[in-house]
Amino acid sequence: MPRTLAIRDNGRVNHSDQDTTDTLDEQPSRGNRLYPRVTSFRSRRGSLTDPQQDAWDRRWPELGRDVGDDLLDADTWFGRSAPLVLEIGSGTGTAAVAMAQAEPHINLIAIEVYRPGIAQTLQRIERTSETDAPVSNLRILRGDAVEVLEHMVAPESLTGVRVFFPDPWPKARHHKRRLLQPKTFALIASRLKLGGVLHVATDHAEYAEWILEAGNAEPQLTDVTWESPMSHERPVTKFEDKAHQVGSHIAEMVWGKIGA
User: Fold this and answer.
1) Residue 13 — very low, low, confident or very high, per pLDDT cuts 50/70/90?
2) Per-chain mean pLDDT for the chain
3) pTM
4) Cα–Cα distance, 153 to 162 (Å, whole number)
5) Taken in order 70, 141, 12, 43, is the CA torsion positive or negative?
6) What is the distance between the alpha carbons of residues 60 and 62, in angstroms, rounded to a whole number?
7) What's the whole-number mean pLDDT along residues 21-42?
8) Is there a catalytic annotation at residue 50?
9) Which among 81, 82, 133, 201 would be 20 to 30 A from 24, CA to CA?
10) Catalytic member of 9, 144, 167, 203
C-alpha cells in the first residue's frame, strides 16, 4: 500500500484557497449527455479584479482553453514534446507554478473551474518572468477534470496526475460528489503510461481513508518501487501552518501504474 510521505500543504483548493465572492450554482455536469453526472466541485461565478482581468486578457488566449470534446494535442500546444502531467484542482496556482518552475522538462496542465483562481495563476506565471526561472511549461484547462480525462486525454499518454486537497464533501449524503471514487481511479489509471504516477494529498482524515481504500483497490495501480518520473515535492504555504495549528495531519499517497 502507498506510504504516507512527508507533510506538505498548498491549501484546500476548493475551500480556503478560493478568495472570491462567487455565488453557488450547483448544476450537474453534462456527463454523457443522457445521464448527467454529479460533479465534485461547486460551480461559482466570480468577478475579477482589474489586475486579474488584465492578466486574463493578456495570457488566457495563449495559455488557457475551455474543456471540450476534442482530443488534446499537447505537443502542439506547448510547442515541444515532453512528459505530460495533469494537476486536478489547481486553485490559485500556488503548487502548479512552483512545480512547473522546478520541473522545466515537464509539460504541466493545470485544471481548474474557478475563473478568479485561474486569473491568479496567470498572474503568478507572469511574475516568474522577472525571475531566473520564467515559467513557459504550464497551460490551463477550465472545466471538469473528469471530462478532460474522458474526452481530451488519450489512453496511456500521461506521465503523472496530481490531486492536491480535493473537496472532501464531509457529509455522508454528499460523498457521491467526491472526485476520487473507484471509477475515477480506474479512469486516471487508464490514462497513465506504464510507470506513470498518481500523487494525492488531503488534510481530511476520513477522506484520506476513503482515498486509500479506493486507490489500493484499483488493479492497475501499485506502490512505486521504481524511480518516479515526476517530483513529489510541493511548495509549503501558510495553509500548512493553519493545518498544524488545528492538529490536521496531511496525508500524501502515491501510486504507480503497473508495468514499469
Assistant:
1) very low
2) 85
3) 0.83
4) 15
5) negative
6) 5
7) 44
8) no
9) 201
10) 167
